[in-house]
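User: Here's a protein and a ligand (adenosine-5'-triphosphate). What would the complex look like?
Assistant: Let me lay out the input and then the predicted complex.
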Amino acid sequence: MKNIVIGRYIPGNSFLYRLDPRVKLIALVLLFAATFIISDIWVMVGALGFVIALLPIGKISLKRVFQGLKPLLFLLIFTFVFQILFNTQGRLLIAIPLQFNIVNTLLAFALFGSWLFLKRKIKFTFLSFLLVLGLIVYGFSELTMFVPYNTSTLAVYETGLTMALFILLRLIIIVTLSTVLTISTKPTDLNLGLERVLKPLKLVRVNTEEIAMIIGIALRYIPTLLDEANKIMLAQASRGVDFQEGKFKDKVVQIISLLVPMFIISFQRSDELANAMEARCFVPGKPRTRLNQLTWKPIDSLVLGISIMSVITSITLRILGS
Amino acid sequence: MPFIELKNVSFKYPSKQAIEQLSLSIEKGEWVAVVGPNGSGKSTLAKLIIGLLTPQSGEIFVEGEKLTPESVNEVRQKIGIIFQNPDNQFVGVTVRDDIAFGLENLQVPYQEMLTRIDTYAAQMKMTEFLDKEPSNLSGGQKQRVAIAGALAMQPEVMIFDEATSMLDPKGRLETLQAMRELRAQKTTLLTITHDLKEALQADRVVVLNEGQVLATGTPREILTNIDILTEAKLALIEPLELLNKMEEAGISSQEWEAKLWQFALTL
Ligand SMILES: Nc1ncnc2c1ncn2[C@@H]1O[C@H](COP(=O)(O)OP(=O)(O)OP(=O)(O)O)[C@@H](O)[C@H]1O
Ligand SMILES: [Mg+2]
């Protein structure tokens, strides 16, 4: 539970860390918008280059960002493959005939079975498994001595390929930028920035300050609750609940034995916390002064300017391109 | 005029009569310790005084002002309260944020907020921890932050509801030391406790039993009265029983008792 990288602040010191959280949030939205406006693949590659160049300048380790991308690797490859396989517009680039016969079908099933069995012992990912599976199907389809019961073609079209690349690059840019934001911004600052940025919503009677207060308290109590969960797990383990192994039924028991005490304790906790807050003169909705002030610096204007410029540039390039 | 005055206050939870026809007054600058068995209504009493609960009958006055839903916010500014569980009263993400919480609520201006945070963090010896998160603090340190947060609001009374009971001996001593310092600064104190050492230092001890005041008097009067201690199921009965027996047997002397008190005070 402690290895979640997305949404994790890592202390550091660079211009990205010193940037006003409001600017970071607005810039993020603007750059997201730009990636959706860009319609030329080379511009997109350029944008990715720009984002990657940001990492060393902002002293953010590439490794951390990659760790942020890793959980999404499957999604990235899936959308990529999906686009390639099902988008049949444009020029045909490659066509690979695939023949399904008894041998490769059986092999595929056997492989799948052994994967299910072996995945506990040997750590190899589902992706490498899929790769081997594909190679087997392809390899054995050349053996013409077995009668194929199904023949199909793996075809890659130009538009499919560019679309797939587009989506892949866009996702990588978005995830990298978000990871950069969370690595370089304390959750409390992010919360404060969000509160200020969303302030106009007060006009439509959304109480942004209260929402920010709730998020702030949630942030404050996450470590405490994790601690508590650990303690409960230890206590339950000492009563014989095994949290490591088990079938589905055991898993359900494990989860219940953790969640029920967590719920009870959290309710009691929130009750006491509400009392403590009220006793310190907290009145929901009443105006408060704030200790955490945000100060606008020249670098903030610069970054905001660059972000606006990238949106304008991508719009211009799109108009020129079409 | 007493600083806090309760007149015939009764409070009932849906399932339980917690306070019954209770009258009590606390003078300015006084240190009152409230003792009593579990469930005798001590915490309920504290919550009534700061208006977290509203009595079904009776009246509560703070500095002559009656506690009503309208006056409760103003009255609360005069009272700081420290609860038992250090974790469940830490609102801020850091020590600094937590001390600021009450000040933000009182709409203290930014500059003044900074000076008050510095002053009260220093008073509670938490200056070097200002940027720490609660998960990096001991229970005693968290309680000191809670005290700094309450003091920063510059209340006239401090209530401690078993503020030391979840702490280790070191944290307990630290918190007790903080109470003594407040005492020296003439802050009115109401301490609810199971710890007789805490009660010993007060000017007056109030014994609560089943929602009523069983007895009130100086610590010496109360803590040497075995009938009261037995009825309120309070600890320290054995050594005092021993003392009484020794007295009966003529072994005891004033000197011996004084020694015992000395011992009790340095526990
Ligand atoms: N929220 C509640 N709902 C119902 N009953 C309650 C509630 N809080 C307390 N009580 C009951 O009211 C009585 C007085 O409770 P109170 O918490 O004031 O006792 P206490 O003297 O502080 O006890 P302790 O020494 O255990 O802290 C107890 O019998 C308790 O069970
Ligand atoms: Mg209590």
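Summary: The longest helix of chain B spans residues 169-184.
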